[in-house]
Each structure stands twice: as C-alpha cells, then as structure tokens.
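S.,

Sequence below, as promised.
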Amino acid sequence: MATIHSTIISGAGASTALLPLLSGKTRILLVTDQNVGALEATRAIHRLLAAEGRQVEVIDTV
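The prediction came back faster than expected:
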C-alpha cells in the first residue's frame, strides 16, 4: 500500500502559494474539474511546472 501525502490549496492567491510548497518535488498531481482545468491560469501553472522539468499529471474529471 502506498501513502500519498496531499495538500489542498484553494481560493484567491492559491497559484502564488503553490510554488513554495512544491520545492524539491518532481512529480505533481493536479486535481480539478473540467471548468477550472480549462482556465488559462490552470494551464499556465501546468506549463510553468513542466518547464521546470517536473512531471505533471492532470485529472480534470472531478
């Protein structure tokens, strides 16, 4: 059995609070719904993380 450590970030300013929490992390799971997943802000976060060489998996069917 695997242990998954998770942190939920939501609300105004969540995107700026995200990066410090991911320091040293290379595999990221981004869970959202289709509407939020389609926002440019969400796509920008995904691109930023991928550009830093992080493996990003998105689940947008919540």
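Residues 33 and 62 are 5 Å apart (CA to CA).

Coffee later?
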